[in-house]
Amino acid sequence: xxxxxxxxxxxxxxxxxxxxxxGGYTVDANYFYGNIIPHRKSIQHLxxxxxxxxxxxxxxxxFGKHEWEQAYGFPDYGVSLHYQDMKNEVLGEMYGLxxxxxxxxxxxxxxxRLGQGVAYNTNPYDKQTNFRNYAYGMHVMPxxxxxxxxxxxxxxxGLGLQAGLIFIHHSNASMKSPNTSTNTFAVNVGLNYTFxxxxxxxxxxxxxxxxxxxxxxxxxxxRGGVNxxxxxxxxxxxxxxxxxxxxxxxxxxxGLQLGADIFWPKYLKEYIHYMSIAYPEEKIDGSADYKKxxxxxxxxxxxxxxxxxxQVGYYVYSPFNATGRLYQRVGMKYYxxxxxxxxxxxxxxxxxxxxxxxxxxxxx
Length: 364
Hints:
Radius of gyration: 23 Å
Helix content: under 10%
Strand content: over 45%
Strand order of the largest sheet: 1-2-3-4-5-6-7-8
Number of strands: 16
Number of helices: 3
Structural class: mainly beta
């Protein structure tokens, strides 16, 4: 019954909103019901029922005051609260807080939402009290969700309807083992409320002569994080990476990258030593260098002062090859100034996360 309690809270928000209407904002609540995808054998025994929950969101509309708003079809941005019952006491329950963007298509009736934030799990792995939970090794973890909805707003006195699909990813990002993570795919249905519009809230079309083709820029980024090997009970170690790359902005939205990474994954030094002792038949050199060097190409999608980026790399130096030669990085950047940016990203090897990276960089 807990999801329905959240929906009652949503209706309370609407009642308050009707007494003090403002323009340019919406709230919505979605109930979802679906399945945990069995992406690994180690969590299949934990999938015993259909998880459900709610997502409650507050959205701020854009009307073209800035050029980027028009370029992306006047998106919304806002915050989301999330609750999910995993339907298994071993996995516990999830509470999440996200920042999100809503992007509109098909005459603003189809909405794609991207949300990124943190989630809290009520019952993570514990070797004594909850040793079966191989999905989550800690209470607090990064989380991402995607939502695709058919959306009709302001059908009756500000109230509207929406329905569609939602995908929710919860993962420790290998900050602590175990870390098999969960992916939930579900259908959702909900209500939305549009606050009373003001007369000046109309979509503005800005004619711009701006040319976004730019010369090459040189970037240096220092990244850090904390991670742990897959061996449960090992220590957490600091992780460092230094990246240098060239970027070329080719349009208002897009840029290309080409560069190199140097990695210092401290956890790997202990893991190499462990493997050389635990598996002597593998003839692993316990003194092998844990450092790595990679070359990568990337793409950057610019949205206002924020951007999204994805990179694919190949290790050209990796004496201990436990993950394969290919690696990926997905994340976001925020330009603090014209030449300085902060970044948050997830480095992975296919579907296996290695570390959550926090970075600070300069663009020259």
